[in-house]
Design goal:
Elements: E1 3-5, E2 12-14, E3 16-19, H1 26-29, H2 32-44, E4 49-51, H3 60-71, E5 78-83, H4 93-108, E6 113-118, E7 121-122, E8 132-133, H5 135-150, E9 154-160, H6 165-175, E10 179-183, H7 207-213, E11 217-221, H8 252-258, H9 264-267, H10 274-283, E12 290-294, H11 298-309, H12 315-327
Parallel strand pairs: 3-4, 3-12, 4-5, 5-6, 6-9, 7-8, 9-10, 10-11, 11-12
Antiparallel strand pairs: 1-2
Helix pairs in contact: 2-3, 2-11, 4-5, 5-6, 10-11
The structure holds NADP nicotinamide-adenine-dinucleotide phosphate.
Length: about 325
C-alpha cells in the first residue's frame, strides 16, 4: 500500500481509503462478522483511513465503524466524520455543530476523531432549504471546529468539495481547511484535469490541484461513480439500489451507458475489468491524498486492494483518456 502526505498535517494516509457510506452499504446494513472481517482485511492491507458521517444510515455507520475498529484494537486508524445542518438548524449553527461533534464521538465510542468535514454543499449564498452553506455559515462552523481542535475533540477539520465551483475555491482561500472531499472519476476528472469548454458536467476547476498547491489533503469520492464505472447494472443486495449521481449524468443508467467509452482499457489489456480501471485511474492523480472506495462486500475490498497495488494506469492509457474527454 502506498502512503501519501495528507496536505501539511504531518499525517500519512493510505492511497486507498475505506468508504463507510450508505451507497456501498456494508458499514450501514452489513452483518457484524462481515464488517469485522472486511475492516480487518483493510487494516492488514495497509488501509489507514476510514470515512464515515452521521448521515450514513442515520448514525449506524459511525456506530459500526467505531465498534469494529475498537474490537480490532485499531487505535491508530485515522477516522473522518462529517457534520450536516438541516434547514431548521441554520439559525443555530454553533450549538448544533458542537452537539453534532459530541454525538458523533459518542456513537463512535471515542474521545476524539482525526478529522471532521462539513457535509452540506457550499454555494455563493446561504440556502437552508437547499442544504447549502454560504461562506458566512462556513465561518461560523470553522469557529466551532477551531474550538473543538483546542479542546482536543478533533485533530483537523475540512470541507465537502461539492457545490458551486467558484465558491469552493473561495472557501479554500478564505479558510484554509486541512482536508477537502472532491468528486473525481473517469467520467468527471475536472478536479484534477483541465477540461475543454464543452465538458458536459460540472467543471470543478482543478480543485484537487489547488488543494495540493495549498497543502490541503484531498479525499476523492465517487471514484466508481457510485458503482456505474463497474459497467455492471446489477447492484449488490447491501448496496443502495437507487443512487443519485454526483456531478456526472442525470441518472446512474446514463452514467452506466457512458462507461462503454472506457472499455478499451480492458480490451487493450491495461486492466482486467472496469472497476480496476476506475480505481487505478483515481490513484493516478498525483495531487490526490486518498481515494475512497464505497464497499458492499469483502470481495469488493479485496479487488480494490489488488487494483491499488497494481499502481496507477500506464501513461499511454491516461493519454487516451485525455483524448476521450477532449472529444466529449
Ligand atoms: N462528501 C460527500 O458528500 C460524499 C459523497 C459520496 C461519497 N462519499 C464518501 O466516499 C465513499 C465512496 O463513495 P460512494 O460509495 O458514494 O461511491 P463509489 O465508491 O463510487 O461506488 C461504490 C459502489 O461501487 C461498487 N464497487 C465497489 N467496489 C467494487 C469492486 N471492487 N468491484 C465492483 N464494484 C465495486 C459497489 O456497487 P455494488 O455493490 O452495487 O456492486 C459500491 O456500492 C463513501 O463511502 C463516503 O465515505 C462522500
Amino acid at each position: 500500500m502506498q502512503y501519501r502526505a495528507f496536505g501539511n498535517t504531518g499525517v500519512e494516509v493510505s492511497v486507498l481509503g475505506y468508504g463507510c457510506g450508505a451507497v456501498g452499504g456494508l458499514m450501514v446494513r452489513g452483518e457484524h462478522p462481515d464488517m469485522l472481517r472486511t475492516v480487518e482485511y483493510a487494516l492488514e492491507s495497509g488501509i489507514n483511513y476510514f470515512d464515515t458521517a452521521r448521515m450514513y444510515g442515520d448514525g449506524l455507520s459511525e456506530i459500526h465503524t467505531g465498534a469494529v475498529l475498537r474490537e480490532l484494537g485499531a487505535h491508530d486508524a485515522l477516522v473522518g466524520t462529517k457534520v450536516r445542518l438541516s434547514a431548521a438548524e441554520f439559525g443555530n449553527i454553533e450549538e448544533v455543530i458542537e452537539a453534532q461533534i459530541d454525538n458523533s464521538l459518542q456513537r463512535m465510542g471515542r474521545d476524539n476523531v482525526d478529522i471532521v468535514y462539513t457535509h452540506n454543499s457550499i454555494g455563493a449564498a446561504s440556502n437552508p432549504d437547499g442544504g447549502q452553506l454560504g461562506l458566512d455559515d462556513l465561518e461560523r462552523i470553522v469557529g466551532v471546529f477551531n474550538r473543538a481542535v483546542e479542546s482536543g475533540k478533533i485533530r483537523f477539520w475540512g470541507f465537502n468539495g461539492l457545490g458551486d465551483t467558484e465558491t469552493l475555491h473561495s472557501a479554500i482561500d478564505r479558510f484554509g481547511p486541512s482536508g477537502m472531499h472532491t468528486c473525481y472519476n473517469m467520467l468527471n476528472p475536472s478536479s484534477s484535469h483541465e477540461m475543454s469548454a464543452g465538458f458536459p458536467y460540472q467543471d470543478y476547476g482543478q480543485l484537487m490541484q489547488k488543494t495540493a498547491e495549498k497543502g490541503i489533503g484531498s479525499v476523492a469520492i465517487r471514484i466508481l461513480a457510485g458503482g456505474a464505472l463497474t459497467g455492471d447494472s446489477v447492484r449488490h443486495p447491501l448496496a443502495a439500489q437507487d443512487v443519485a449521481p454526483i456531478a456526472t449524468g442525470q441518472t446512474l443508467s446514463e452514467d452506466l451507458a457512458r462507461t462503454s467509452q472506457f472499455s478499451f482499457l480492458v480490451e487493450d489489456g491495461y486492466t482486467e475489468n472496469l472497476a480496476e480501471a476506475a480505481i487505478r485511474f483515481a490513484i493516478s492523480a498525483e495531487n490526490l491524498s486518498t481515494a475512497l472506495v464505497g464497499l458492499s462486500s469483502f470481495d469488493q475490498l479485496e479487488q480494490a486492494v489488488a487494483a491499488t497495488n497494481k499502481g496507477p494506469l500506464p501513461s499511454d492509457a491516461l493519454e487516451k483518456l485525455e483524448g476521450i474527454w477532449a472529444a466529449s
